[in-house]
# Entry
Amino acid sequence: MYLYYIVLALILLLYLGIYSSNLANKSKRSIYIILSFSLLILISSIRANTIGGDLSHYIPNYTVLGKQNWEELLLNRSKYGYMYGILCKIAYAINTNEQSFLFFTSLFNLLPIAYFIKKHSPRPWLSIYIYITMAFYTNTFNSVRSSMALALGVFMIHYILERKFWKFLIYYLIALEIHQTFFPFILLYPLCTKKLSLSYIIGSISLCVFLAQLALRSNIFTLMALFYDAGAYGKTAINETYEGAGYSLLILLTAMTITFYQINKNKITIEIQLYLHSMTISCCIQAFAICSGVLTRISMFFYIVIIILFPITLLNIKDFKLRRWGYTITLILFFAYFKMFVMTIDPITKTNSQATIPYKTFWEK
# Structure
């Protein structure tokens, strides 16, 4: 557990060290992002094969897919998809050890996030801090394929902003092939240019909360999760079908979305508009998480934009003292969320919901 706190501290200390140096500002930014993500990739790559709950079925299938010849792999699509199978085949060809799998998936999941932050974040240190404390980072340890789809999603953001539909579509189809739950992401392309209002945000979320209450009585989402992948989602879908888990995050995301809109409403660029649409969709999907907790994984595809939207929003606060308080409160609240919800250990399982603590390296027994 303490390793993750140490990583947070190192991320902040690294920022202070690099940005107080005599390097050029552009070099500081690049060096900081490279060093920070090198650290994150290293920690992810050398973890034991028990750090991440879903590895219990990903690791065995890595060996199965890796041993298949190319003809078998391409003619017999596994439930994990062609792209995931190809990645496993390449990693296995380089090294049959399971650490090769962890290294390649870590690269796939984290490098696009580094690119996204470098290209769009005005405060990389805060983006990385939020990325860790909101459990996006540790989620790559657990939900490997959905994290791969998420990584491609953030890579597609600039194609949406630049209105390059065919490039967007190619990457979208690749991400969809990796994880079919990525399908709602296509909504962002047409919505990007649509202006939105506070009434639109609140109305959309309220409607979805109402519909979710109706769906809760039918257990339709639990049944869909079981049908989609009983092995991976059956137990989770049954155990996480309760209101508390869905609404706690929904309230947080809704509060964030409304705050983002209120602070930025006079400075809404096409980029901010896209992020606000993304947050609204995440809230709408999260409303249905009271029916099935696995839907939170889908909402993550959309609320990942907070790693950029928070720094932008804080910079748009005109008053210097208020902005400084904004940074302080943001750091404290995200740390509290990290400690209370991400790092909380279940007394029965002796780990957290992602099975990422206690952290162990592959050489530890």
The CA atoms of residues 269 and 275 lie 10 Å apart.
